[in-house]
Each structure stands twice: as structure tokens, then as C-alpha cells.
Amino acid sequence: MKKRVWSIFLSSLMILALLVGCQSGSSGSKSNGKIKLVMWDLFSGGDGDFMKEMINEFNKSQSDIEVETVTLEWAEYYTKLVTAVAAGKGPDIGISHTSKLPEIVDQGLATELDPLADSIKLDWDSYNKNILDATVFDGKHYAVPIDTHPIVFYYNKKHLDAAGLLDENGMPKIESGAKGFSDFMNTLKANDSKLTTFAFPTAGDDPFRLWWALYHQLGGYDVVSDDLTSPQIDKPKAIEAANFMKDLYYKDKVIPLNMEDFYQPFQTGNAATIITGVWATGTFEKTEGLDFGVIPLPTLYNTSATWGDSHTIFLPVQKKEDTEKAQAALQFANFIADHGQIWTRAGHIPSKTTVVESEEFKNLPYRSDYEKAAQQVVFPKQSNKVWPIKDIIIRNLDTIWAEKETPEDAFNKMETEIAELLSK
């Protein structure tokens, strides 16, 4: 036991050492009359490029504040961030997914924003209410959402047209209901058996996201009770959604099993459809010769609903409060949300209704075709165990897709595991 405690202690010291290195000794200092702010982020690839562009725009837009960002590896980001903030060595500005925010708020690591928002006249009403509400805890704002990124439905126009499933406006002709969706997929398959009808994985996050969407389209309630103390899975609806997806794999056989890279067949024009997050838009539109369309996830049941998450900007608590720096940081966060027309080039849906209604946004291809999905995102309950609960759900759903467990057994096990987790 002593060895384990000593090992944990050493690991913590190593993490803190890395964190101090990441800060580069410039957190929130004032230089040449400017307020210097350091942000930690987890953005790589295109997301990282667009975020840097917005930071540069902010720095050029005024002469009082300068923001620099440190990009951490995704796998290590939250561990380093939480450890640093708890030790009083965190950045001035942090990025959090909405789904991770309950954990950060519960640990007392995020600054309440309302007094600061009033002082800089931040207008919360300019934000999409569905996106914003997921960042509000006990009536208090703890983060500025900059987007939402739901799963959506992409389709290859050439393949749909060949099967008679494309209308005159370039939209897919899908009859209503779950049967209509199945018939649509089976028609595509019958028209070209060599084509990948529906590019989609057989395990992991993506099947979970689709199951979450269909479960809530059926009217299923959150898997955790309102008081966050016990599971409350609506098993009949959970089973129905899982069985529908299982049929796509094994009965209709419109999804090839165990696809290692499900983007590749769609990107190369060898798949008719794919369901994934809006973040794929930037990749697909840069693919030469790919004539595709995209719409919100089709409504197969009673209610329009989809899975989604959001990136938010929050202000980590500081060892020593500095109102001037905090106001500057919040001004920066609001600026980033105001310039969502840059961020949406990565595919994300901006959090501000003013951006979505702007001509600049409307003139972008594809985005306007799926921006309504922002209203359909069903965020999880604000439990500080959202991520471990998701891991439990994914692990048990994977046994269904692999035909190792029946849906009934899988959801019984899922319920037991969630109950054990919440009891700790």
C-alpha cells in the first residue's frame, strides 16, 4: 500500500512539473501595459488552426489584452488541467467540453461568471438557449459555449441519385419512421451491392452516439435520475433503439462489420452514407471529386433528437483573484463566440444565434443544411460522473453489436454498473 501511495505521489509531482513547463512562466502577467493571458486548449489539426486564427484576430482587435495558447495532447489534457488548477498553477483560460463541465464545477475549479458578465455587459440572450442551458448550474453560468457538434447524416449525391433517392433539391428521399430509414438503406444496397451502403463502426463512441439519439427520439429519459443518485434507464425504449441498430448490422446487412476506418470509404466515394459528427464537414469538403450533402440526423421515431457535445471556455479558479484579468478573459471568450463564422469552418455549429443568422454563415456551404441540429441535441444530466457513465454504456452496448449479449442482458448489466458507480 505504501508503495502505491508513493507511486501516486511521484506521478503527481511529475504532472505538476510538466504543467509548470507548459505555462512558460507567463500566466496572466502584465507587460507593456497589456494584460497577458494564457489559455490551455486541446485543439489539434484544423480545429487548432482555426482557434489560433481567432486568437490572432482578438489580439489585433484591441490593444489592452494579449492571449497566447498552449495546446496539450488530448489524452492528457483534462488530467493536467484539473491537477494544475487544483494546485493553484492553472491557466487563466481553459477549454472544457460541456459533458466534462459538471465534473470541473463540482470540484470547485471553475469561476462563476455572472458578476463578471454583468461588469462587461455580456448578453447571455445572444446564445442558443439549448447550448447555453447545458453550461448553467443551479441558475449560475460557469462557461461560455462556443459551439455544438452533433452527429449528422452525410450522403453521396451520385449514389443516391442512381438509386432514385435524391429529390430535385439534392436532398435524400427518406420516408418517415424507422421503417422508412431501413427501406432507404435497403434500396441503396439493392441498387449497388458492391457499394458500402452505410459506413459506420461496430464499436465505440459512434454507435453509442447513434443509440443515444434514437433512444431519445423514442422519448427515453436520461439514464440517471433527476437527483443524480441512481440509474433510470427506460429499458423498453433502450432495447428498441438497440435492436433497430443491431438489425442494420445483422438483418439488413447495410453496415459492414468491424470497419477499421469508416471515413475512408465515404471519402473515396465508395460509400453512399455515413453518420458522424459535424467535424467531418471540413474534411469532406476538401476531398476532390466528392459530391456530398448533409442534413440533421433523420427523425426515425416520435421526437427530433440527436447526440452532441459542445466546446466551452471557462475561467479556472486562481490562487489569487484578479478581477481585471478575469474580465479580460471573459471578454476574450465572448469575442470567440462572436466570431463563430471562423470556428464553423471546422464544421461546428456556432453557439450564438446572431452568428447563425448572419449572411456570412448562411453563405457557407453545408452548415446551413444542418444548423437546426443545434436545437435537437440532448445533453446528459449534469452529473459529475458523465464520462464514466458513458464508458459503462459504451462497454455494454459493444457487447450487443458483437452479439455477445442480448440487449436485455446488456441493459441489466449497464443498470447495475451505473448504480454501483453512483453509490461511491
UniProtKB/TrEMBL annotation:
What keywords does the record list, in alphabetical order?
A: Signal, Sugar transport, Transport
Any Pfam family the entry gives: SBP_bac_8
Looking up InterPro entries in the UniProt record yields: SBP
What start and end residues bound the annotated signal peptide?
A: 1-22
Q: Which family does it belong to?
A: Belongs to the bacterial solute-binding protein 1 family.
Report what the protein is called: Multiple sugar transport system substrate-binding protein
Recorded source organism is: Lederbergia wuyishanensis
User: Which lineage do the record's taxonomy fields give for this organism?
Assistant: Bacteria, Bacillati, Bacillota, Bacilli, Bacillales
